[in-house]
Amino acid sequence: MNTQDHLPLAPRDLLILAVLAEGPLHGYGIIKAVEARSEAGVLLDPANLYRVLRRMRRLGWIQEGEAGADARRRTYEISRGGKTLLSAELTRLEKLLRQVRPAMAGRDGA
Amino acid sequence: MGEGATSGSPPAVRLYAGALRLLPPAIRTADGREMLLAFSDLWQEELGPLLRFRLLLRSFGRLPWVALLEWKDHFTRPPLRGPRKNPWRWGMSAWMRNLRYALRTLRKSPSFALTTVLLLGLGVGSVTTIFTLVDHVLLRPLPYPSADRLFLLENGSHSGPMVREFQTMSSVESWGIAQSETANLVGAGDPLRIRQTEVSRDFFSLFGARPAVGRLFVDDDFRAANVVVLDYGTWERVFGLDPEVVGSTLRVDDALFEVVGVLSQSFVPPESIYYGDTGSDVWLPLDLTKEEYDRIGYHSLEVVGRVAARATLEDVDTEMARVGERLTQQYPEHFLDDEGNSRYSTPPALLQEITTRPVRAGLELLLGAVGLLLLVACMNVAHLFLARGLVRVHEMAVRRALGAETASLVQQLTVESLVLGAAGGVLGLGLASLGLSSFLALNPDSIPRTGNVSLDVRAMLFAATVSVLTVLLFGLVPALRSMGKDLTNDLKGTSRSATSGRGASRLRGGLVVAEVAFSLVLVTGAGLLLKSFMRVQARDPGIRTEGVWTLPLTPSWITSPEEYVEAMDRVEASLAAIPGVTHAAYSLTLPFEMTGRGRCCWMTSSLSAEGREREGLRLLLQPATASYFETLGVPLAAGRVWRPSEARIDPWPVVLSEALAVEVFGSAEDAVNQSMAVGGDGTMVQVMGVAADTRHFGLDQDPPLFIYLPMELIPFDIPMAHMAVRIRSEPPANWARTLREAVWQAVPDMPVPTIRSMDEWVERSTAGRRFDSVLFGAFGIVALILAAAGLYGTLLYAVGQQRRELGIRLALGAGRGSVVRRIVTRGIGLAVVGSLLGLAGAWATGRFLESRLYNLEPTDPATLATSVSVLLLAAALASWLPARRAGRTDPLETLRSE
What we know:
By secondary structure, chain A is mainly α. Chain A has one domain: Arc Repressor Mutant, subunit A, CATH 1.10.10. Chain A has helices spanning 11-21, 27-37, 46-59, 80-109; strands at 25-26, 62-64, 75-78. In chain A, helix 1 (11-21) crosses helix 2 and helix 1 (11-21) crosses helix 4 (80-109). Chain A is globular and about 50 Å long. By secondary structure, chain B is an alpha+beta fold. Chain B has 5 domains: 3-76, no CATH class; 96-145 and 359-498, no CATH class; 155-346, no CATH class; 503-541 and 760-898, no CATH class; 555-750, no CATH class. In chain B, helix 5 (110-139) crosses helix 12, helix 11 runs parallel beside helix 13 (457-475) and helix 17 (561-576) packs across helix 21 (735-746). Chain B starts with 10 loop residues before the first helix and ends with a helix. The chains are: A mainly alpha, B alpha+beta.
């Protein structure tokens, strides 16, 4: 998988990958975690979430986790490829921020 | 997604479970349960109503979009699947594959596809249209409580003493009594012509009427109180739905009334019990204690009753007869004729029946006819499918030999049939809505209760189901035939086993003959009606209609002839002064206003001239102003018109219509300056001139025998003055307003209800005929198409069956021309037999049309010959197409496949 093909990531995808990087979650958990992390900026609905998850799984970014405490629910965890992608995106974003921050700093100073 | 998981859950969760069904099945199997669990958890957690509302909004709001995307992915990226275990459970992708395949197949045989769709569309469309109308007009109950128990007493109006006897009857639980007339409403915007109806206390409750604002009548109102209830339409048009109208005062003719309420919009007045619709109604309380209601001969009241709960209409009839006996004993001089026989007859009839009686037979006939059309259309479709099935036997055999399962063949053919069925249904729906709107546009008056007709979903479903079943049933024949049999013959392409018996072939021939006969009857009917319509249209109206505009006025407040003539002369002068107006006139009635049923107004049959009594002439007295003839463009055949100064001299100066002059004096010239005695009292009149005949009562009526006389001589019990103006050019902008203001300049409170051009009156007078010919014409065309399609299908089927025979004939040296001729001859032969039967049918049904024809016999040879040739021409075309195909048969190919 050539990670560069998928960059930049959509904010929603980035957030999902980010919360999964901290540990496996089931669908409800992902929705709540994304909501909390984005300070209610990204609100997911179940049908769309699973559409996104299906696509991420097909691309190999995430995989099904082992059954957790609640055996009825399917959990998802980030895959090795997903981790690579996530860190590539973070690197890209940080580089970008480094490039544009002086402009903000200049305004702050003015 | 387990159904069990949702039972006992909150409604929102169950709703979401349902909504998830929008997603493709594969997605639901994979993630449906998870989605539902996630939603359920979120629902449990979000406790505030606002939070929950937001959750609902985003979950349900986005679902359709997600579903759309998923379905798109589903079709554009079909997932790889393993071999199917159960072929009867068809996944969606198989359906889509078959849909694509079906569309491709149908594109390859466009004539088959188009014909089928057209036939189904015509069948579904016509049945839906007519059934919708029949349902609305005949089957639905009238919009009143217990409408099936409302009845009306026939044979005219009743007098006060009769009504009081009726009210004692035990088989009737309540009576509504009404008396209506037209009046002028003034003092609220432009003066308005209205219908005022006095009604009894139970009238409104009998018809379930409710007030929109204010109240309806209470007991005190019936003791000479001047109160009025408005109908919703008047409230809306005149008072702009202002609730303040309750409590205000109106002037109706010369009396003042207090408005106490407005009827609700849903109240539809029962049209069959009163007359003179003006589009505006006011309702007054009926005071039965007035002196005139004690007179047995004062017949003015219309009555409607509701049959008591345990009684029947027969009970009412029986009791009514007893009431009649009592009344006859009380008032023998009124109810017994010279021979002592009772003249009392008031048969009760259900309101619903009376409302629909005039059109019932016609509509039922139509419904039968379109039912037949649908049947014939379906049979034709069946035929086409059978013919096509023969051609595809080989294809099916090949596919089976290659390992196709029956199920997949059935599926493929099902999809093909459904595509055709759906296309036919859509076409039918379009045709039905087109048909219905043109039906209503053509026929605004003569069919009752068509106000709010919309397409009937049940009729459409019924017709669509019949046609889809037909296509499914016959579409599957090829697959079913190839099931479980030895395919060798089919593969070789011979069709020995496909030859049907002589009986089936006769049946098909018989069907075509019946279709041809049926359509000939309709085409002939259409031809006769169209010819009548054109003949009527071609008649000279006797007046020059272009540039003439009419304004019927009713100055009902005027109390003396002098006042009447003075006021109307002022209006005439005011109209004549409008720039562009060359002439203005008024008369008792104007040409083409009273076409059809109505006959007006002043008639006599006694006339004596040159010392001889003339009996049996129907003379019409037409009071008019002297400018009448120039305004309407009626040429004078001899003599002159009276001058306004001569209007009041004795003997009366009159103008005769030419037919009358010829009838009485031999010629127009001989009539001038003669004098005659007219009417029962033998009033002497002097003939000043003779005017050309006019078709006053309609283009299809004979010119009446008119005596025109000066307006000044009108007897004052007919307060009508119908104004006419002639203008030189096209009417300028705001023409109606200009005319109205000219009237009001002369007489301020005069309502001016309808302003129409004379051309419009003439057109309206022939609207019924136009409607008849369009209706019959439409059905005639549909029937013609069906007959042609039936012939085409039958011959196509025959040609398909006889391919081998044809091939051999061609191989043995038969000319292609002779092969084509043989088939065309067979087709035309069937059409000729059908035409003969159709002629007999047209002969037999012609008498139903007789009353609607004009100067035309129902057996008019020219019309019959034309329709037969149209039909035979269509038959020839329908036979030639399959024959051409037969002629193209390649003998080598046919024989090689043996």
